[in-house]
Write a structure and sequence with these properties.
Two copies of one chain form a homodimer.
Chain A (H helix, E strand, L loop, with lengths): L2 E5 L3 H13 L3 E5 L2 H11 L3 E5 L7 H10 L8 E5 L5 H5 L7 E4 L4 H20 L3 E4 L2 E4 L4 E4 L2 E3 L3 H12 L5 E2 H9 L8 H14 L6 E4 L3 E4 L3
Parallel strand pairs in A: 1-2, 1-3, 3-4, 4-5
Antiparallel strand pairs in A: 6-7, 7-8, 8-9, 10-12, 11-12
Helix pairs in contact in A: 2-3, 6-7, 6-8
Chain A binds a DNA duplex through helix 6 and helix 8.
Chain lengths: 226, 226
DNA sequence: CCCGTTCGTAACAAAGTCGTCACCGGCTTG
DNA sequence: CAAGCCGGTGACGACTTTGTTACGAACGGG
């Protein structure tokens, strides 16, 4: 079963979370401050980290950033606990890299749901991040190659990244702004119509397999697996 | 104001809770045993349920589980009343799904604080519901997709947003002005009759599932889960 | 340095969507 | 029971959004 690191300086909170997690069959590691959290995260390499925002030694946000910077821990989902709803924006904001949050006081039920959600999400996206197949469309990310009907299709770097991101988030609509942010990595500078043009080129190259690329009018684009 | 279902077989306890809740401006529904609780929960769709652990007919824990299983009531916060501190663990334990508890005998003040806490918490997290199912109607927000009877139904962006907001606030009537504010995001510019037209289009597309869309004459519209 | 590729922008046409209106029937109210 | 209000319905024109094509700038390799 999965291993979870719980970081909070309030013993009561830790105990409540720990109890629920163990009840659900998780292995639990705890830390009471930021320095300990970083050390244990690297040592135990947990599958998920529950991180309180307000902790001594090193602030929760700082811990978050540092964990992301270290290759060993960069991929671990982080669930933030925060007292103030107003802080949510910052927590989920660009560089901080938390994956989800729960505001204090939280119900154990909700916390468990979110933890399970994160673990499930990670499983489904991580396992298929490398090589994805949808019918006769095969997308091999590390190889940077795409085949349709066993025939190699050459994509440019931008086209490949666009297709990859859509495929990794298959089923969920991505707005043009979101795609600009993730594929082009900077916003506002580039016209959103650029996305359309690249989608057009992708569709052209994909031929029949372009059926996987859905337009959601007024919203954005979506990759459909079926 | 919020509607609260109080379940307890001791008339004195019910009366005490009811008195305090009504004093605070809540609407109160009561039930004296598990079977009645389940029935009234589905009928009244309260915003919160205060549930005694030891009740006749169907045990409190069982009621809790059953309420969670039904899509119509799954999201309602449950506050458990329990006589024994030792039972707390089981109550909050994973699958049982209570959100908080108060041990008997309790002070009315504490009970009220916990109720308000739960309601506040729900407000802040409710909007995050990602996927909702009501009978054969499945609304997947991130995918921006709706299926009725396992068949895909295409909605425009506005229709989808309208339906989503109604579904997220199911059970509560939304005035046309409120909907204009939340769906169209600006007020006064647009005619309120526009809402009617979009409701009409939604109903048309939903077919039989349009039964979830209630008109409340002179007030607005409401999504009903059952 | 030149040529070919790739990319972002612009312009236009086609398609889809939206808000309004007018009419009608039913419900409410006095 | 009659008048008035309210919501359902269908139609329509204006507007928005997207697909498509074309073009020039930026980039990179030879």
């Amino acid at each position: 079963m999965a291993k979870i690191l719980v970081v909070d300086d309030e013993p009561d909170a830790v105990e409540l979370v720990e109890f629920n997690l163990k009840n659900a069959g998780f292995e639990v590691v705890t830390a009471a401050d930021g320095a300990e959290a970083l050390k244990k995260a690297r040592a135990a390499l947990p599958d998920l980290i529950v991180l309180d925002l307000m902790i001594p030694e090193v602030d929760g946000l700082e811990v978050c950033k540092l964990l992301r910077r270290d290759a060993a821990t960069a991929g671990i989902p982080i669930l933030m606990l925060t007292a103030k709803a107003a802080e949510i924006d910052r927590v989920l904001g660009l560089e901080l890299g938390a994956d989800d949050y729960v505001t204090k006081p939280f119900s154990p039920r909700e916390l468990m749901l979110r933890i399970k959600g994160l673990l499930r999400r990670r499983e489904t996206t991580e396992a298929k991040a490398e090589r994805m197949q949808f019918g006769d469309l095969v997308l091999d990310v590390p190889a940077h190659s795409l085949t349709v009907n066993n025939k190699r299709v050459e994509l440019t770097a931008t086209e490949f990244k666009l297709l990859t991101i859509l495929a990794q988030r298959r089923g969920r609509v991505q707005s043009r702004d979101q795609l600009l942010k993730d594929v082009w990595e900077y916003d506002n500078v580039i016209d959103t119509r650029t996305v359309d043009t690249h989608m057009r080129r992708l569709r052209e190259k994909l031929g029949k397999a372009a059926k996987h690329l859905d337009t959601v009018r007024g919203v954005g684009y979506r990759f459909v697996a079926g």
